Amino acid sequence: MDQISATPGVAGQPGGPEFGRMIEALRTVQAAITGAAPPPEVSAEVGAILETVAGALEPYLVGEDEQLSGHRDDLPGRGQPLLPPLWLDERDETHLRGRVTFDRFHLGGNGAAHGGAITVLFDEMLGRLANAGRNRARTKYLQVEYHRITPLDTELRVEAKIARVEGRKRFLTCALYDGEHLTADAEGLFVELLPGQP
Ligand SMILES: CCCCCCCC/C=C\CCCCCCCC(=O)SCCNC(=O)CCNC(=O)[C@H](O)C(C)(C)COP(=O)(O)OP(=O)(O)OC[C@H]1O[C@@H](n2cnc3c(N)ncnc32)[C@H](O)[C@@H]1OP(=O)(O)O
């Protein structure tokens, strides 16, 4: 993926508001399935509906460059269901600030968000910033610390900064807050790709 579009789509066109609604519904389904203990007949019925859903989309399978998911900057988490719904409110080439809410789909245990889901958020934040107005770079390492549990169903603040740039190396930091409380933070190294690196 080399480009993402910040332009809201046009109703009636691929990538219009209908697409955003579908992704939102998928997020709702992910949380509902994760949190449910349905009787077998309901599991069977929902499973069959989801097989129908997958079948409805199958004729429209496209390559990575043409897919809409992940390419939509006007949708939370770029419209990529792997990412928790993230809204970026401030952004320049040195910092990013946004809001994110984890839900039941992102549960680790005992009401806390899964540490891996938090790491996905940090990789996204640092990746977005590392690539803002610069040549492409990829994560070399991402070191995460969990300071206290990250609650579900709570709007959290997330901030990323460039710490320093040394040649191809971009060192960045990211922090996640529940109100005034730091729940997790990370330091990452992104390395600018050489010609020919995928
Ligand atoms: C995502 C692509 C960009 C798209 C941009 C589109 C626009 C924006 C749109 C949408 C935003 C999307 C946002 C997505 C974000 C997601 C990001 C990810 O998750 S990326 C996937 C996970 N990461 C990998 O799969 C990397 C796999 N690894 C590699 O490909 C290579 O290892 C690579 C390119 C990272 C580096 O490989 P080498 O061989 O070119 O470089 P070496 O020699 O290892 O290191 C370079 C320098 O770094 C130092 N270095 C290496 N490891 C170090 C370490 N642990 N600590 C300190 N320095 C280290 C070395 O000493 C060297 O330093 P010296 O240049 O000589 O000064």
Automatic annotation (TrEMBL):
UniProt GO molecular function: hydrolase activity
Domain Thioesterase: 110-181
Pfam families documented for this protein: 4HBT
Domain of life, source organism: Bacteria
Entry-linked InterPro entries: HotDog_dom_sf, THEM4/THEM5_acyl-CoA_thioest, Thioestr_dom
EC number per UniProt: 3.1.2.2
Keywords: Apoptosis, Cell membrane, Cell projection, Cytoplasm, Fatty acid metabolism, Hydrolase, Lipid metabolism, Membrane, Transit peptide
Membrane topology: Peripheral membrane protein
Localisation: Cell projection, Ruffle membrane; Cytoplasm; Membrane
Single biological process term from Gene Ontology: fatty acid metabolic process
GO CC, alphabetical: cytoplasm; membrane
Reactions the enzyme catalyzes: octanoyl-CoA + H2O = octanoate + CoA + H(+); decanoyl-CoA + H2O = decanoate + CoA + H(+); (5Z,8Z,11Z,14Z)-eicosatetraenoyl-CoA + H2O = (5Z,8Z,11Z,14Z)-eicosatetraenoate + CoA + H(+); hexadecanoyl-CoA + H2O = hexadecanoate + CoA + H(+)
PANTHER family per UniProt: ACYL-COENZYME A THIOESTERASE THEM4 (PTHR12418)
Family the entry assigns: Belongs to the THEM4/THEM5 thioesterase family.
Protein name: Acyl-coenzyme A thioesterase THEM4
